[in-house]
Amino acid sequence: MSAVIKTRSLNKDLAAKAQSATRSLLARCAADNRWLETALPVNGPARAKAAVWAHDEAAPTTWEATTPAGAYAVLLLLDEARLSLRSDDHALEERTCHAGSYYVSRPGETVTVHTAGPCRALHVAVPVQLFWASDDASHACFSMGPAHDALLLQLARTLLEMHGDCREHALAAQIMELFVDRLRHLRAAAAPRACATRKTVLPQWRMQRVDDYVKEHLADHITLNDMAAAAGLSPMHFAAQFRAATGYRPHHYLLLCRMEHAKQLMAEMPRSMLDIALDVGFHTQAHFTTVFKRLTGKTPSQWRGDLLQAQGV
């Protein structure tokens, strides 16, 4: 019986220590409101580096970065958050994402994350030689997600609990090795689909031409033929490659671009909803309101009201 009591007491002490370390780490993150770089060594010359980002304000914020040439970057949500994500290979419209949602960007990829409110995430930079075996690293390069993994989330939370005590440094390094090993397992599962998709995906330079065309003609009537012509492809091939590259149909992507520009207009200048609707390519305010609510969950007036409230206006 005494052994059981001692074990329970030890578990309580460890839990209290982990909770205290986590509170201390999150307090520092919230105070600085920026990425906190903390190197966590693993076996061998290469190291994975972890960082925690906490944005506790109700106002939206945007984070953008380009993954270094010699590493993969992992962004893992620690709590539920409402956000949108855009990268060279993927686009995630604004939505509520659960804790454990992640995105792995390939070397050299630019990623932009926009959060509509509070958000807390773990960022891990994993050197290519840890992510791939040396004989594969030269030719296997693709991003992963957005997806969800409960084991990555559990390892991330355990890593945070261990971070506050230097005596737990060796254990934290082991947890990081498990984290990277889990990523390699997820990579192996995603590799066949990524290799098959890569052959038919829209090249980045064609995607850029489409994006430039759409943004320049948002107020005009844009058809599938117009977007395909901008990419230099037939409508059928363009639609298939575009969806493989972005996960969206071209028309859906066009609507997302119109909504993003509408948000920018609502935030920058006091104009009527009808004027904004016309400027982003809608013939009526009613149609604009319907599409805006379907894609964002709010009417344009509600969205602008929330923005003004967050700005204290």
Coarse shape: globular
Full CATH superfamily name of the largest domain: Jelly Rolls
Helix content bin: 40-55%
Percent of sequence in beta strands: 15-25%
Question: Which sheet architecture does the biggest sheet show?
Answer: 6 strands, antiparallel
Number of strands: 10
Number of helices: 11
CATH first level of the largest domain: Mainly Beta
Helix and strand content put the structural class at alpha+beta
CATH topology of the largest domain: the name is: Jelly Rolls
Strand arrangement, major sheet: 1-2-9-4-7-10
Assembly state of the chains shown: single chain
Average predicted confidence as pLDDT: 78
Q: What is the total number of structural domains?
A: 2
Terminal CA distance? 63 Å
Give me a quick take on this structure.
With 313 residues, this protein is an alpha+beta fold. Helices cover 51% and strands 21% of the residues. It folds into 2 domains: 2-198, Jelly Rolls (Sandwich), CATH 2.60.120; 204-310, Arc Repressor Mutant, subunit A (Orthogonal Bundle).
